[in-house]
Design a protein that fits this description.
alpha/beta; Rossmann fold; seven-stranded mixed beta sheet; about 25% strand; globular; Methyltransf_11; Class I SAM-dependent methyltransferase; transferase; methyltransferase activity
Length: about 260
Amino acid sequence: MSSWSGVAQAYERSFATLCGGTVERLLDDTRSVAVRGGRHLDVGSGTGDLAARAAADGRTVVAVDADPGMGALTERVVPGRAVRAALPALPFGDGCFDAVTANFVVNHVGDPRAATRELARVMRPGGRVAVTSWTASPPTWSELTTYAFDAAGVVVSPGGRLPPELDFDRSVEGLAGVAEDAGLTVLDARELAWDWAVTVDDLWAGIAGGVATAGQAYLAQTSAVQAAAEQHFRRAASERAEGGLLHLPSTAAYVLCGT
């Protein structure tokens, strides 16, 4: 289970653009049930990008995030539509929404199956739930941090994995199994792939700001180790960048569900 407390600004500058790579697919696959004023719930709204684009598409949007910093970012782009709440306890009645999206949320919660059951509960009969998750494959960007951290002598604590009875296989098949356990019918299950274009400065801002496991590990180091890690990261990333940008192939598990 990941903590996102206090990292909203750093996330907006960095990894939010990574997570944005799947937004268009989620919107496309829920458009048929939420067009022309249909009710759309976006859970784990983050910066509010998906919610804002859904609202621009003519949908009646409600955006939920557990972190107050993320909620403030969402409120900025969809005023009056942001609600502070956390899975698996959403403050909505059964079957309230035509479309429900959860972009990189169930892989961060303490009970992914309970969370997905809650997504299913608030979807109306005939609606759609679209969910993404990171897989077990190390992301391309982590090659840079792994190299820099090893070179700097960063001590990384073992990751906080969920208990086996709560965890799921971080794959397309594993995410589909979570959806099926929640009583949903999986209409599509696949791996999504896209190119994440990000500047070296913006990616480093996410790490230095404490985003994700790598960011938390960085903040736990001494100032000397932090300085060495940044130096190694910037050197390696600059060598890989083209025209000031890193182009990092990215993938995620994706499922589209109905009833």
